[in-house]
Specification:
It contains 12 helices and 13 strands. Helix 4 runs parallel beside helix 9 and helix 8 packs antiparallel against helix 9. The chain folds into 2 domains: 297 residues, Alkaline Phosphatase, subunit A (3-Layer(aba) Sandwich); 87 residues, no CATH class. The chain has 428 residues and is of the alpha/beta class. 34% of the residues lie in helices and 14% in strands. Strands 3-8-1-11-12-2-13 form a 7-stranded mixed beta sheet, with helices on both faces. A two-stranded antiparallel ribbon has the order 4-5. Strands 6-7 form a two-stranded antiparallel sheet.
Length: 428
């Protein structure tokens, strides 16, 4: 079982030298259907800005954020290819490339920034990257005006023609991260219904007595967090089995909560744990597939998200869209606060050593426009980002300029990525 970085792993002494710099992590969160821009965009600029309604849940991490206004994804536009805005938005979000209009096997768009980095730095960790989400990927079929379903359900691309499938079942993610392959194969855990912590308890006790007080506390907090994730997954599985009629002709899903917010938070917790243990340094997370028509009964929005996004200027629909947008941001704030609560070996926080992009490749869901995108960048990038600001860029500034600047910080320098025209200035 992986461990978080402990002070004992980097002892400060005359022979050990200074504490090692924590690694830099990078993640990308995508939400579908754009946002209600008037309730997203701050009025002030620089450090003098307030959080508008949609971004209010981020108040506790405001000083760890950059709100980036004015960025554009030109390759999300039709550029002569006709309808299919949602498919183009999703597939170009991390690639900055124009997808080939096809619903056959001849997919082509471009490698995504997360996979570009993973191919160069992923060998340092157990997993090169984690591709996560809450809606299943659909690798085939026609989902958007002649575009393959792969384009609207996959944000991460390992090569121009290879979409990366994402994992949506928290149980599968947990076992992949924390349970060794041999134990999975012999089925001990499912047979005995024991916690993974039962199998490592003796080793954990032996380790704890050799640690200082700070490390003991850190170890206890980490093991408690892992156990809480296990318990939440078990509750979700029971909810599925006990709370629904048994349909023998259908395979019952396991580990996916009925509550969408809990689903997002569970997946987010495991991404945080993977970063904490340095199991991976790169991840992508789709809150939902592009064009999602999910309803949000928990916040009194029974209508479908995509249907509402075609608001036609209707004030009532605007109000419901912004509630959905705020709900998404609230879940994102939970994940950022989890990252901020975890201390690294040098006294910084896990969030300090992250670059977390959040946003959509559609600005307004009714207009389907791809300029002035709603984009956040959270984390201090290991001290290379000057956060707590709202930055406004010139119109048509490519979002891929941001990716080039992020790759610099990951020690993967490139002169060009996708349709970039340079680096994004003003981040430091």
């Amino acid at each position: 079982m992986a461990l978080p970085t402990l002070d004992a792993m980097n002892p400060t002494s005359m022979w050990a030298g200074p504490v090692e710099q924590p690694p830099l992590r990078m993640a990308f969160f995508m939400v579908p259907n754009g946002v209600h821009i008037p309730d997203w965009t701050p009025t002030g600029e620089g450090y003098d800005f307030g959080l508008p309604y949609i971004l209010e849940p981020l108040a506790s991490v405001k000083d760890d954020l950059l709100v980036l206004t004015g960025l554009t994804h030109d390759k999300g536009r039709a550029n002569g290819d006709g309808a299919g805005d949602h498919a183009r938005a999703c597939s170009s979000f991390l690639t900055g490339a124009q997808p080939r209009k096809t619903h056959g096997a001849d997919l082509r768009v471009g490698i995504s920034v997360d996979q570009f980095a993973a191919q160069r730095v992923g060998q340092s960790t157990m997993f090169r990257s984690l591709e996560l989400g809450c809606d299943p990927a659909h690798p085939a079929g026609n989902c958007d005006s002649g575009y393959s379903c792969a384009y609207s359900s996959c944000v991460s691309w390992g090569s121009p023609g290879m979409p990366m499938g994402k994992e949506t079942n928290p149980r599968v993610v947990f076992d992949r991260l924390f349970f060794d392959q041999a134990s999975q194969e012999d089925g001990r855990r499912n047979l005995l219904r024991r916690s993974i912590l039962d199998f490592v308890a003796e080793d954990a006790r032996d380790l704890k007595v050799r640690l200082g007080r700070g490390d003991q506390r850190k170890l206890d907090e980490y093991l408690t967090g892992v156990r809480e994730i296990e318990q939440r997954i078990i509750r979700a599985e029971r909810q599925r089995v006990e709370g629904r009629p048994q349909l023998p002709e259908l395979e019952q899903p396991a580990g996916i909560p009925d509550d969408y917010g809990e689903h997002v938070r569970l997946i987010g917790d495991m991404m945080v744990a993977a970063f904490q243990c340095d199991l991976t340094r790169i991840s992508s997370f789709m809150f939902a597939n592009e064009g999602s028509n999910r309803s949000y009964h928990s916040i009194d929005v029974p209508e479908g998200h995509h249907s509402l996004s075609h608001h036609g200027g209707d004030a009532e629909k605007h109000a419901k869209i912004r509630k959905i947008n705020r709900f998404h941001v609230d879940q994102f704030a939970y994940i950022l606060n989890r990252l901020k609560a975890i201390k690294e070996s040098d006294g910084s926080t896990l969030l300090d050593n992250c670059m977390i992009v959040y946003g959509s490749c559609i600005s307004d869901g009714n207009a389907h426009n791809n300029e002035n995108l709603p984009i956040l960048l959270a984390g201090k990038g290991g001290g290379t980002l000057r956060v707590g600001r709202h930055l406004r860029f010139d119109e048509e500034t490519p979002m891929t300029n941001l990716f080039v600047s992020m790759l610099d910080r990951m020690n993967v320098p490139v002169d060009r990525f996708g349709d970039s025209t340079g680096r994004l200035h003003g981040l430091t």
